[in-house]
Amino acid sequence: MGGVSATAAPVANSSGSVTNQAIQVLQGPYITNTYGGGIQCQGPTVNFTPYVTGSVSQQHPFEDLYYDNVYDMRDLDEDGAPDNPGSVLYQVPVRTGQKDNTNISIGFSATWSRPLDKKLQQQCKDAAAANIALMNQTVANKRLDFEIARLKNCGELLKAGIRFAPNTQYAKICADVQVKGVNFMVPHVHGIPQHNKVIKKVSTNASDLGLPIEIGETKK
Questions:
Q1: Whether residue 42 sits in one domain with residue 69
Q2: In what helix (H) or strand (E) does residue 130 lie, and over which residues does it extend?
């Protein structure tokens, strides 16, 4: 009489995964404006940091189900042993539960930074405004020096009779310079001298004409 033996073969499977995702926000420096003369002012700063994160987990090959064999364990002769050991009667579909995991995260982080001492900020702005005004005045002085030098040199050349040909490239350099008596006349009025007029006497007396006039007959 055959016996039946059973062997216990426990199998324990454990699997897991851990995904750590972090968003790092980097604090940027203050925006610094430089105005010359060593003047630098820092203003408030806003930092926007957009981010997109995602993760995908898959198993390969992907199988949504598998077929489990059902063996013939029948003992028709009742001898205590299967009549057809190892014989497969049919297969049973079994779902694996296998899935693909997809994760997407979209967002942004923002930080706002500004100096706490408003008085120092205002002093720096005032110093910057004063330095800009000084630079503008310096430029105006340089421009005035240039125009006066151009006026002087062009005037001396015009007095000497030296000038660029009209309608040439450099004729416009001295085009607006006027030299009295050379290329510019001051509006003036000349007087016309008055001479003594000779008044002629008109007479109706024949003796005033000079010698007597003889009247004779005309010879034929």
A1: no
A2: helix 118-159
